[in-house]
Design goal:
Order of helices and strands: HHHHEEHH
Shape: globular
CATH class: Mainly Alpha
Helix content: 55-70%
Pfam families: MarR
Protein name: HTH marR-type domain-containing protein
Number of helices: 6
Domain HTH marR-type: 4-137
GO molecular function: DNA binding; DNA-binding transcription factor activity
CATH superfamily: Winged helix-like DNA-binding domain superfamily/Winged helix DNA-binding domain
Strand order of the largest sheet: 1-2
Radius of gyration: 18 Å
CATH architecture: Orthogonal Bundle
Keywords: DNA-binding, Transcription, Transcription regulation
Length: 142
């Protein structure tokens, strides 16, 4: 197997395994991967975030995001708030319960990150991050 094939397989499998491992750590919180990813983006974004912007960040179709937001809203974790400048636009904000859940998600994600990445030399980790960021930039550049 070529180094390029090994790299592609390792990248794909590691990303999938990382998400699955985090899902296992978050399972008892009662939120799906789509839910916790959405909550994390809402929490980390400065200022209002529209449903469409959230869909773009999570990299899902708008209809899929509507379903995810519906579930989160029903669970009392988010609210849809009409935009002050455009009544057609709905912003998604965390409720106090959503903020508490994000704190738990963040703590467990940080713990997992430390558990896994703590076994890798800091220099190698920095080099890997640089390489992955370069690849992202190459992919994003037309």
């Amino acid at each position: 197997m070529s180094v390029e094939d090994r790299f592609s397989a390792a990248l794909h499998n590691t990303a999938r395994m990382w998400r699955l491992a985090l899902d296992r750590r978050l399972r008892d919180l009662g939120v799906s991967q789509a839910g916790w990813v959405s909550i994390a983006y809402i929490a980390k974004t400065q200022g209002p975030l529209s449903q469409g912007e959230l869909a773009n960040l999570v990299q899902v179709e708008a209809a899929t995001m509507v379903s995810t937001i519906d579930r989160l809203e029903k669970a009392g974790l988010v609210l849809r708030v009409a935009s002050e400048s455009d009544r057609r636009v709905k912003h998604v904000v965390l409720t106090p319960a959503g903020e508490v859940l994000y704190g738990k998600v963040r703590a467990r994600a940080d713990e997992m990150r430390r558990d896994i990445l703590g076994h890798i030399e800091p220099e190698k980790l920095a080099m890997t991050a640089d390489i992955l960021e370069n690849i992202q930039a190459l992919i994003e550049t037309p």
